[in-house]
Each structure stands twice: as C-alpha cells, then as structure tokens.
Task: inverse folding
C-alpha cells in the first residue's frame, strides 16, 4: 500500500467533532502511575471538555504496573474508559500493539497514542480535527513536541540518528529525513496493521524511530499538526544515580534492539558510538564506571 492508496474518510469536513472523535481510540500507557496524576490523562480530559461536544471519547489505559487499578474510580463525564493490565511489563511497543488490535475490534480508524507524561494544550483536539478535515491522505498526524523549549519532534533523521529542528511548518511533509517520538501521534489503524505495528523487541527506547521507519517503507508523507505538546524525557535525568543507571540500562537495550531491527552494520556502529559516548558522559557525571560496564554488557556483548 502507498500513500495514494490509503483509504481515509473523505467526508470528515462535513462531520461534527463528536462524529470524528468517535473514529479515534485514545491510548495512554502508564507504569506505576496514579492515573489522576497523569499529565496525559488530565490534559486530554481538559481538551475534550473544551470542545463541549456532549459525548464521551473512548480511552484505553494500558497499565504495565505490578498491581492493577480499580479503573471505575477514575470515571468521568468525558471518557469511556477501558483498561488492560499486564504486570509482566512487556513494554510500550507491546502496549501500543494491543491498543491497535483493540481499536480494530472497536471499528476505529485512528489510534491516538500517549505516554503518561505528555501535556496537551486545551485546544489540542480541535487542532487534530482541523488537520483531519484538511483531507490529507497520510498514515500519521504528528504534533510538535517540545522539551524545555527545544523542538524534539518531528526531528531531522540521518545516519540512524535524530537531531532537533529549529522549527517546522504545519501541514504535509515528506517522511524522508524526518522522524518523530511516540506521544501524541495519531496513526491510521489500517496503516498501522499494514506495516506490522511496533517492533516488540524494541520495547521502550527507540521504539518510535523503528516504527516510523516501518511507516517510511510503505508511505511517503505525514502531516504535522499545528499543536504544541510538552513532553518529559525520562532519559535526561542526571541527578539520581539509581534512576539514571536503570534508565541507561534500558537505553542500551533499546539501542541494541533498534540496531538489530534495522539489520544494518551501519546502525550498529552509529548507535554504538552514540551510546558509548553517553556512557562516558554519565560515568563522568556520577564519578562511577558502572555506565561503561552497562554499555559493554548490554550493547557490545548483547545479541
């Protein structure tokens, strides 16, 4: 399937907000998080309230925490809540794949993916709906995502590495030399299934880049929504050693799995240099060699 063959409703421009939102399944992946404190949960609720549509939207909570939650206690006037719990913590890729399968069963055309720490503006859904009404035949609508004032998604992507853009205009863009992060993506369910979904071996870090590259193999363009999201980067914590070494372990695993997914010695080398340099930086910051050890064991020796 190519971009021109992508079947998207041509009548979105004539549909109401509630009719368009009925085509979307929102999924929020959480881990050891009180949903009531989740930025994503609260700001998407505020965005639904802002539209004053008088209808609830379908929201799936994928909870990878050790203990399950009583989802009934989080009911509100804006969400039809669905809940999937997996104490094995299979990773964000597996959760999104389960959500896409659920979306297919529910007859949804679109999957709106979120992690637990993304802040959406109050007019976010209005902007996504306007983008859909524009009628572009694309598999993905991506917001502009910022971290500490820096545009981190979409980003420039070359030699298996992402680098920040100074700015990007809203509208249709070529997929070539671009990449995105997961949170805030609106993905066509048929396209999701066409490319095989997320690679569950790349279960956290680099999962977005690997998935987007799968999209690139089938499609040529995507749409940048005129919507600014704020996102927290868990890999950027340089203050707590216990947290930092654990996240760096996950980061190394993700980089190694991503390299395997690309099936390229170039990816292995480029990612190895990038992760190796980060291990040196982290070892210097914490005055501990354990980051170098993790890099050696999780990336160099891993298969």
Result:
């Amino acid at each position: 399937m190519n971009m021109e063959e992508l079947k998207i409703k041509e009548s979105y421009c004539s549909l109401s907000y509630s009719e368009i939102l009925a085509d979307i399944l929102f999924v929020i992946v959480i881990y050891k998080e009180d949903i009531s404190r989740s930025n994503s949960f609260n700001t998407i609720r505020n965005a639904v309230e802002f539209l004053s549509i008088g209808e609830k939207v379908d929201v799936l909570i994928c909870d990878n925490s050790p203990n399950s939650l009583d989802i009934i206690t989080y009911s509100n006037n804006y969400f039809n809540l669905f809940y999937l719990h997996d104490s094995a913590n299979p990773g964000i890729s597996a959760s999104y794949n389960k959500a896409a399968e659920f979306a297919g069963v529910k007859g949804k055309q679109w999957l709106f993916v979120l992690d637990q720490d993304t802040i959406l503006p109050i007019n976010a859904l209005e902007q996504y709906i306007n983008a859909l009404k524009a009628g572009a035949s694309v598999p993905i609508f991506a917001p502009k995502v910022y971290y500490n004032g820096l545009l981190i998604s979409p980003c420039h992507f070359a030699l298996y590495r992402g680098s920040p853009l100074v700015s990007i205009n809203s509208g249709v863009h070529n997929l070539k030399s671009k990449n995105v992060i997961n949170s805030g993506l609106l993905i066509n369910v048929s396209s999701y299934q066409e490319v095989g979904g997320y690679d569950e071996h790349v279960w956290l870090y680099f999962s977005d880049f690997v998935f987007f590259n799968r999209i690139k193999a089938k499609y040529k363009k995507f749409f940048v929504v005129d919507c600014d999201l704020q996102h927290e980067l868990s890999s950027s914590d340089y203050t707590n050693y216990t947290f930092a070494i654990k996240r760096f372990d996950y980061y190394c695993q993700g980089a190694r799995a991503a390299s395997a997914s690309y099936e390229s010695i170039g990816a292995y080398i480029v990612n190895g240099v990038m992760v190796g340099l980060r291990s040196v930086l982290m070892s210097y910051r914490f005055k501990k060699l354990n980051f170098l050890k993790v890099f050696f064991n999780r990336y160099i020796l891993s298969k």
